[in-house]
Structure formats: structure tokens, C-alpha cells
Amino acid sequence: MIHVIHHTGFAPESFNPGVDEAGRPRKPTRFSPIRDEKGNVVPYLYGGSTLDCAIFETIFHEVPIDATDKFVDLDAFSQRGHGQLVSKRALKLVDLTTEGLHRLKIPKEELITSTASDYPLTARWAEMLRRQCSDADGLLWMSRQRDRDHALLLFGDRLAGVLTGERIGGPLARNSVLRDAVLEAALRAGIEAA
Questions:
Q1: Cis peptide before 33, with omega less than 30 degrees from 0?
Q2: 3-state secondary structure of 117
Q3: Mean pLDDT throughout 55-67?
Q4: What is the 3-state secondary structure (H, E, C) of 119-182?
């Protein structure tokens, strides 16, 4: 089971195209944009092993751990909803947990716990790993935001028709179950969310 916090205008299993309407790459993330062998931006999907992981990796993603005042404006996520994805086959994921990082000889600080200013470099690592592991469906690591759970990124060009998604309630603006889960997670982490 893969949990996502997705824009409810799209199905939960929809991949982010990685480019805007004009074809320009979207705002960089830890592992995107990446390009395929022909130079095309690879669609991607981020998810987590639990709902809490998806909340932390999406809604709380921009909240610095060491900030004095931690605040999230939930109105910015009002059209986001909870989705659950199931794969029709076993996924092949590049292991970027501690064991995988040891094998690759990459310190966690360079790839997983680095800041947004390093995203151009971490995205290049993802691009290189995708090219070297031609049968990989994506990347798997311990969540930076919630390190008891796995986070993952899936490559859209390798998973056509493989994922089935289910919406769990509606958008945050009208989904009291999701809103309560977000507020409970915020309270545990000392984040003000309103």
C-alpha cells in the first residue's frame, strides 16, 4: 500500500508530468526533475508507506525541523486529498535506506537529509540511478520528515497501467477525517496548522 496526498483534480495514481503547460520544468524537488535518455522530463509520483508519512512529506514538507515557530496554512492544501495506491506487480525500487547508501558510498546528508538548495544535485543522482538501473521502477528511502516510514518516488514512464488508486474521502477542505489526521500529526510534531 502506498499513501499519497494528491491534488483531487487528478486520480491518486496520476503522475506529476514534471513540466508546466508551457513545457518548462516545475519547481525542483529532492528527486525531480529528471530526464530520460532522450532528454524528456520523466513524470513522477511521490508516496509514503503510511498516511502520516504522506502528510509529513507533502503538507509539512516545507516546515524546517529546527524552526522556532512552525506553521502550516492548511488553506494552501485545501484541494489535496488522501489516496491509496496498490501495484499490480512487485515494484523494483533502488534502495536509498542506510544499507543502500552504504553500498553507493553516499552520505545520507548529501542525498536524503540535504536542504532544498541541494535539489539540483539530488535530482541528478536520481537521474543517474534511473539510467544505471534500467529495470528500476523508482527510489525508496527513509523519510526525511518522518524517519520511521519509507518514502518513495516512482518513475511514470516505467509504470503505465501498473498502479490502481483509491480516493479516501474528498479534498482536505471537506474531509474531516483527513483534517483530523493532519491536525493530530501537527500536534505531535509541535507544528501549528490552521
A1: yes
A2: helix
A3: 92
A4: HHHHHHHHHHHHHHCCCCCEEEEECCCCCCCEEEEEEHHHCCCCEEEEEECCCHHHCHHHHHHH
Contact between 93 and 49 under an 8 Å Cβ cutoff? The reply is no
In angstroms, rounded to a whole number, what is the distance separating the alpha carbons of residues 191 and 194?
10
Grid cell, residue 44, equals 513522477
pLDDT given for residue 31 in this prediction = 95
The pLDDT of residue 41 is: 94
Bridge-based pairing of strands 71-72 and 150-155 is unpaired
Distance CA 188, CA 185 (A): 5
- E strands, 49-91, are 71-72, 80-87
Q: What is the pLDDT of residue 24?
A: 85
CB neighbourhood size of 76 (10 A): 11
Residue 103: all three cell numbers together: 553500498
Strand partners, 142: 150
pLDDT higher than 90, residue 23: no
* Distance in angstroms (rounded) separating the CA atoms of residues 56 and 143: 9
Q: Which of 23-27, 120-124, 127-131 is predicted with the least confidence, judged by mean pLDDT?
A: 23-27
